[in-house]
Amino acid sequence: MAKEITSTSEDFNKWYTDVIKKAELVDYSCVRGCVILRPYGFAIWENITGVVDKLLKKIGVENVSMPLLIPESLLRQEKDHIEGFNVEAAWVTCGGGKELSERLCVRPTSEVLFCSHFSQIIESWRDLPKLYNQWCSVVRWEKTSRPFLRSVEFHWQEGHTIHSEHEEAREFTITILNLYADFFRETLCIPFILGKKTEKEKFAGAKETYTVECMMKDGKALQSATSHFFGSKFAEVFEINFRDKNNAEKLVSQTSWGLSTRVIAAIIMVHGDDDGLVLPPKIAPIQIVIIPIFPKREEILKKSNEVFENLKNLFRIKFDASDHTPGWKFAEYEVKGVPIRIEIGPKDVLNDECVLVRRDTREKKKCFIKDLKKNLDTMFEDINKNLYLKALKNMESRIFKANSWNEMVDLLGYGGFIKTLWCGAPVCEEKVKNELGLSSRCMPLKNKITEGVCPVCGKEAITEIFWGKSY
Amino acid sequence: MAKEITSTSEDFNKWYTDVIKKAELVDYSCVRGCVILRPYGFAIWENITGVVDKLLKKIGVENVSMPLLIPESLLRQEKDHIEGFNVEAAWVTCGGGKELSERLCVRPTSEVLFCSHFSQIIESWRDLPKLYNQWCSVVRWEKTSRPFLRSVEFHWQEGHTIHSEHEEAREFTITILNLYADFFRETLCIPFILGKKTEKEKFAGAKETYTVECMMKDGKALQSATSHFFGSKFAEVFEINFRDKNNAEKLVSQTSWGLSTRVIAAIIMVHGDDDGLVLPPKIAPIQIVIIPIFPKREEILKKSNEVFENLKNLFRIKFDASDHTPGWKFAEYEVKGVPIRIEIGPKDVLNDECVLVRRDTREKKKCFIKDLKKNLDTMFEDINKNLYLKALKNMESRIFKANSWNEMVDLLGYGGFIKTLWCGAPVCEEKVKNELGLSSRCMPLKNKITEGVCPVCGKEAITEIFWGKSY
Question: Which residue of B has its CA nearest to A142?
């Protein structure tokens, strides 16, 4: 089965498509640009949402649900915002058998709905802050589509908060960025660069956009989560006022932030290999699969079942007693990226042992069944560490520093990020985009700039910046 | 605060609207017929989905996600189905700045999408059954709207399964009906009648529809969850074939079933009273609220906090140390239906005691703090029992048996269900509808019919049936 996957070196894009299809993550639907999330793919998303939802609730975020449809007049109120989404909008024009008097947009994002609600419920400083989130799907009429990377409909969470002070709102933007960062590192074992987007690349209507920028195995960038600071830009338009402690009318300060099924693309392209998925244990729908060797021998089946019963409340575990060959099963669960396989054969039964096989390194380890729990805990920890470090090594080895335009040109062929200084001028960013085909990824939060010049124009630099090709 | 709620006896509909607004369950949005689920309302839904999702997974149901939009041609393939939904459809006609060549319907339900997917992935009997579910929102262009009862957009779960045999599919329809029934009884403390819908009232395209029919405090019926058996009606149209064990081509047999945010309406109208919500403990966002009497006294605050810390990992609990008066807080959490309130005053601190107050019966109970956990457990059990029995008593006292047309007419004024025999003829059902204003609710699964005649036409009866006014 694994053999039917194109190798990463032969054609990375084809490999990606093969993997998601073979691992049964998605199926193409009869609706243009929309995919079906199959049970295995959706289970990954459920595990992701489970972790992120807990993290958000821990810092006081509350879930709500806003309507799916947005009246055109509401969407048009903030002009930068509608400009950013106008071409991607899908419009409902007919409902209940009649032409509607006003078109309704299928939400591409819900800033304006939250604003309209906030303006209704906020009266005084006592009502602030409001830290809201919703899990939903949104629709953007993309011309091309690739599962998890770009599709007309996709699932995400969108957070929307309002605060009494700009400083508090900006800090919250960074709090969320760090929450995402922890999630990528601790749960997904994915390294990243945290940074700020340039004016050109920031979110439509935002004052500042912060990003978790990840690098895929092929050296390309994936913007994997973003956090936006709005200040009072929307609050002014939507009149979200409150009375402060001195009874003076003030505008709220606002943020929004999101993480989508794109993170599944990141998981696939950061950890996957030529045999398929390699899933981080914390979000793997099946963390352990038990495969009996000679499944027809009763003592093997019995022992395997015993092991399963002992572990089933501790891990997400599957016992595959089906009549496929062990070889078929090995390949099947390798494609599906199951982190640990437990093999139980005739000798193992005699010795009260089993064999643990790691998906990430292929290492095998014999282990007494009585020590299983301890060994599995250690192995999961090792897998987490190894996945992260391996990905970090790949990312670091593909970040190239350039001091001049010529160095930038020379580094183009290597694939990866190019790190330079930058003067901050959009015209230089444009030139890099047009002549080198690289977009600005972000200006790192950990900015180590001392002195130097922009390699594009030679003027004094104000920031470090990462350039790359992106998904 | 509680005083601002209209009493149930004065105007039940107004009471309902007051409660959902005062308890901050929803807010009206600027989108016609769509409401905003606020944190407290959405938290109830999250608790409901949490329980139901576990129950479904326990019997092998897997979650998936289908597209939000349905091409018109796909929706039109099964003619009874589209007839049922045609007038309620909302159509996307414009996307990416262009008129679409084919209209897309915002899903009112997803049978046809599941069918289209099933036909792609099913090959042999080995692939069956498929037990799928999705949590999502759907859109139906209703003319009138009332939060949780009827709205243009609402949240639900829709399950879709296919099986190799009709008998297995029909049995699964009943398995799900019983799962819903257990959920209503055990989790929501709501009694019900389980039954089969008449031909007139069944789901568009289904062969049989089963229902969980609940009675609200005002005697009106709420169809609260449904389970449909399709046989091969859709399978034929969408060509969902498989090879059976003898390698013969066969059509699958199908079911679908759903439960929506309507259950929140049921919770409100079955348990609520003149002071607001009365929430069943298992789905209450706040199960216990701790209210310090004299919150400025340090020893009271300290003791309250101690109690909170000891209980916070065992229950969903809130410690309200805000500077509102105890009286304000009592009313606030009564409106919100919090099942148990813990009061801690000066004497309590001295005696290491506290006072427990039940929302459902208003009973107060002194309790040593060291015995709190045990007392709370018992009290929650008592609340569950009391809520169920009280609602059951209301329902049973409002089910009236009628043997003749005149008896039916006489019983009209009482509000509640009228139980009669029925010959099964649609014309008799129509007559009851048109002349008495009652719709058929269901033919009970526990059908105790012996011999008798239909009170409408006098012909021989074939079933018992419940009639009622419904939401």
Answer: B96
CA distance between the termini of chain A: 28
Q: Which residues contact B382 (CB under 8 A, 6 or more apart)?
A: B358
Give one DSSP letter per residue of B153-215, joined into a string.
Answer: EEEEEEEEEEESSHHHHHHHHHHHHHHHHHIIIIIS----EEEE--TTTS-TT-SEEEEEEEE
**pLDDT score recorded for residue A2:** 43
pLDDT in tens, B411-463: 998 989 999 999 999 999 999 999 999 999 999 998 877 789 999 999 999 99
Among A398, A455, A140, CA closest to B69: A140
Interchain CB distance below 8 Å, A34 and B69: yes
- Domain limits, chain A: 2-271, 286-378, 399-468
CB contact (8 A) between residue A113 and residue B65: no
CATH class given for the domain over B399-468 = alpha beta
Distance CA B57, CA A458 (A): 62
Contact A91 B86 (CB under 8 A): no
Q: How far is A446 from chain B (nearest CA, A)?
A: 36
User: Out of B64, B93, B116, whose CB is closest to A94?
Assistant: B93
Over 50: is that where the pLDDT of A364 sits?
yes
The shortest CB-CB distance from A29 to any of B46, B67, B141 is to B67
Chain B contacts of A68, Cβ < 8 Å?
Answer: 34, 68, 106, 137, 139, 153
How high is the pLDDT of residue A3? 55
How close A67 comes to chain B (CA, Å)?
6
pLDDT tens digit sequence for A77-97: 988 888 888 889 999 999 999
Distance CA A290, CA A292 (A): 7
B11 touches chain A (CB under 8 A): no
The one-letter amino acid code at B470 reads S
What type of residue is A13?
N
Q: Which residue has the tokens 């457990």?
A: B377
The CATH number assigned to the domain with range A286-378 reads 3.40.50.800
8 Å CB contact between B112 and B70 = yes
**Which CATH number is correct for B286-392, 3.40.50.800, 3.40.50.970, 3.30.470.10, 3.40.50.1220?**
3.40.50.800
CATH dotted code for B2-271: 3.30.930.10
pTM of full prediction above 0.80: yes
* Chain B residues within an 8 Å CB radius of A153: 67-69
Burial class (CB within 10 angstroms; exposed 0-12, middle 13-18, buried 19+) of A362: exposed
Give, in order, the Cα–Cα distances in Å from A347 to each of A298, A305, B168, B342.
Answer: 14, 16, 41, 60
- Provide the ipTM: 0.95
Half-sphere exposure of B460 (CA within 13 A, CB side): 3
Compute CA distances A388 → A182, A211, A396, A442, whole Å. Answer: 12, 19, 12, 21
Residues of A in contact with B46 (CB under 8 A): 63
